[in-house]
Amino acid sequence: MIFHERVRALRKERRETQVQTATAMGLGDRHYQRFEQGTNLPSFQNIIALADYFQVNADYLLGRTDVREMLPPSVQREDLS
What we know:
Order of helices and strands: HHHHHH
Number of helices: 6
Strand content: under 5%
Radius of gyration: 13 Å
C-alpha cells in the first residue's frame, strides 16, 4: 500500500468524510482530497500532522513499515544508539 491508499484507509476506519478529516486537521477540503487521490504529496509538517491525527507511525504512512503503532520517545532514542 502506498501513501494515498493508507491515508484513505485510515480515514475510512474512523468513519469520517474527507471534509471532516480536512476540517479537523485545519486543511482545505481540496488540499486533503489531493492527498488521497495521490495527486499531491504532503509537506513534512502535514505528514507529521497526519500521523498524529491518525495515531500512527509516520513511516507507516510513507510505506516504509507495516508497523502502525507510534513508539514512545524513550524507545526511539534507544534504537538510535
